């Protein structure tokens, strides 16, 4: 599903920001 892919992308981006910080 597109929604599932989008959620996964947002999740990876969000966790990536946390790691950078």
Mean pLDDT: 89
Order of helices and strands: H
Shape designation: rod-shaped
Which percent bin holds the helix content? over 70%
Description:
With 21 residues, the protein is mostly helical. It has 1 helix and no strands. The chain has one helix spanning 2-20. The termini are far apart.
Q: What's the SSE blueprint?
A:
Elements lengths: L1 H19 L1
Pick out its properties.
single chain, 21 residues, mainly alpha
How would you summarize what this structure contains?
This protein has 21 residues and is mainly alpha-helical.
